[in-house]
């Protein structure tokens, strides 16, 4: 299976080869604009944004687990 990065790199390489052989100088600019527009529609995030959100989710998961343990202990004390 081809990774998305490899797919984009291959596409970029092919486009660069096409530009080198093409008399139209603004093809690269148009392709970059087209790709940027496509990526914007995909609602992508950067690796940094993803890592920040992942860290927040991990911290929240840990907090929830601690709260669940505390609630279970309190429920146990109340039932005795």
Automatic annotation (TrEMBL):
<comment type="similarity">
    <text>Belongs to the UbiK family.</text>
</comment>
<comment type="function">
    <text>Required for efficient ubiquinone (coenzyme Q) biosynthesis. UbiK is probably an accessory factor of Ubi enzymes and facilitates ubiquinone biosynthesis by acting as an assembly factor, a targeting factor, or both.</text>
</comment>
<dbReference type="GO" id="GO:0006744">
    <property type="term" value="P:ubiquinone biosynthetic process"/>
</dbReference>
<dbReference type="GO" id="GO:0005737">
    <property type="term" value="C:cytoplasm"/>
</dbReference>
<keyword id="KW-0963">Cytoplasm</keyword>
<dbReference type="Pfam" id="PF04380">
    <property type="entry name" value="BMFP"/>
</dbReference>
<keyword id="KW-0175">Coiled coil</keyword>
<keyword id="KW-0831">Ubiquinone biosynthesis</keyword>
<feature type="coiled-coil region">
    <location>
        <begin position="50"/>
        <end position="77"/>
    </location>
</feature>
<comment type="pathway">
    <text>Cofactor biosynthesis; ubiquinone biosynthesis.</text>
</comment>
<dbReference type="InterPro" id="IPR007475">
    <property type="entry name" value="UbiK"/>
</dbReference>
<protein>
    <recommendedName>
        <fullName>Ubiquinone biosynthesis accessory factor UbiK</fullName>
    </recommendedName>
</protein>
């Amino acid at each position: 299976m081809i990774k998305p990065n490899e797919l984009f790199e291959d596409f970029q390489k092919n486009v660069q080869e096409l530009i080198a052989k093409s008399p139209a100088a603004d093809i690269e600019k148009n392709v970059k604009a087209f790709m940027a527009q496509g990526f914007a529609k995909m609602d992508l995030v950067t690796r940094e944004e993803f890592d920040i959100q992942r860290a927040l989710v991990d911290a929240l998961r840990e907090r929830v687990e601690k709260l669940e343990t505390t609630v279970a202990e309190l429920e146990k004390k109340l039932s005795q």
